[in-house]
Amino acid sequence: MKKILVSGGAGFIGSHLCTRLINEGHHVICLDNLFTGVETNIEHLKNNSHFEFVNHDVEFPYLIEGLDEIYNLACPASPIHYQYDAIKTIKTSVLGAINMLGLAKKTNAKILQASTSEVYGDPVVHPQVESYWGNVNPIGIRSCYDEGKRCSETLFMDYHRQNNIRIKIIRIFNTYGPRMLPNDGRVVSNFVVQALQNHDITIYGTGDQTRSFQYIDDLIEGMVRMMNTEDEFIGPVNLGNPNEFSILELAEKVIQLTGSKSKLVFKPLPHDDPKQRQPDITLAKEKLNWQPTIELGDGLQKIVEYFKEYRYRN
Ligand code: NAD
Ligand code: UDP
């Protein structure tokens, strides 16, 4: 049994990761300030004696003994949430990385950083390979998130080079699934919730921009495999589903799946919204023997079922 800390463990991805690690028989400490995470996401784990929830902000140091692994996920991920208090977002990314790396140094734990495809910004190399340095606006409204995550990667590499910390960096591409909040603001949850209520589906811009959508279970499998690789392999490694769709295609799929009467409405495209995004997953295939197994139609079906039930529970 390992003792594992998951920062951001009450969020969408974090709660699935905590569940997986508890099911594998580990002791899990979920560290979260409940900014975008909710206690209902981890309710099913609370009676387990090997699960601990600690309400803590990663901007401040956290001390504990005897850790084996740390997964650093604490950071709002949806544009509306990370732009709500941009300064707080950067502090969470940068000070959170410093505090979690400091903890890894003290306890000699291995530490994994949940980085993002946003480090590629509005990419001019397509699909995105890990060796691409990206095209990021340093002064725009997305910068608090993109640059915060880029700086975290730098910190991880420097702690590794200077202090021999065992690190892993993954770059997560758009991921969706149950436990996203209905008001999360990201495109899959927005469209599904809108379609289920027969409300207008909000397309930002023309809807020609693309994303590649990964189902949560595929990501969790890739994260755990990455943590378990030999110490020499630190990444960064892309984790995403390479099947690319335009936002209009996504809207059509959601309408078809839900049998919704929703109409499409077109809203202004937010500033710096990337035009295209698709992971090159050659490295993950080779090093993790991993590739996504759940296609968009099947994954959407699962999140549709979740939100249908969610409406009765809340
Ligand atoms: P989420 O908003 O559901 O989860 C983030 C969690 O971090 C929440 O529980 C929130 O309360 C917590 N948190 C935020 N600030 C904190 C702070 N200062 N101290 C302690 N906890 C704090 O988002 P998610 O989709 O689950 O994302 C999890 C991680 O994965 C994030 O780091 C995000 O950047 C990364 N990521 C996600 C995606 C995606 O598509 N979902 C893509 C790329 C990267
Ligand atoms: N988007 C949209 N309608 C929505 C929410 C998002 O058209 O209701 C678009 C958004 O402009 C972007 C894409 O969908 O082009 C993905 O947005 P999301 O916020 O999910 O992720 P990110 O932009 O961070 O990849």
From TrEMBL:
Domain NAD(P)-binding: 5-302
GO cellular component: cytoplasm
Domain of life per record: Bacteria
Entry's EC annotation: 4.1.1.35
Keyword Transcription: no
CDD domains: UGD_SDR_e
Pathway: Nucleotide-sugar biosynthesis; UDP-alpha-D-xylose biosynthesis; UDP-alpha-D-xylose from UDP-alpha-D-glucuronate: step 1/1
Xref: Pfam families: GDP_Man_Dehyd
Database matches in InterPro entries: NAD(P)-bd_dom, NAD(P)-bd_dom_sf, UXS-like
Cofactor: NAD(+)
Bilayer topology: Single-pass type II membrane protein
GO BP annotations listed: D-xylose metabolic process; UDP-D-xylose biosynthetic process
Entry GO MF terms: isomerase activity; NAD+ binding; UDP-glucuronate decarboxylase activity
Record's keyword terms, sorted: Cytoplasm, Decarboxylase, Golgi apparatus, Isomerase, Lyase, Membrane, NAD, Signal-anchor, Transmembrane, Transmembrane helix
Compartment(s): Cytoplasm; Golgi apparatus, Golgi stack membrane
Entry's family note: Belongs to the NAD(P)-dependent epimerase/dehydratase family. UDP-glucuronic acid decarboxylase subfamily.
Protein name: UDP-glucuronate decarboxylase
Organism encoding this protein: Bacteroides intestinalis
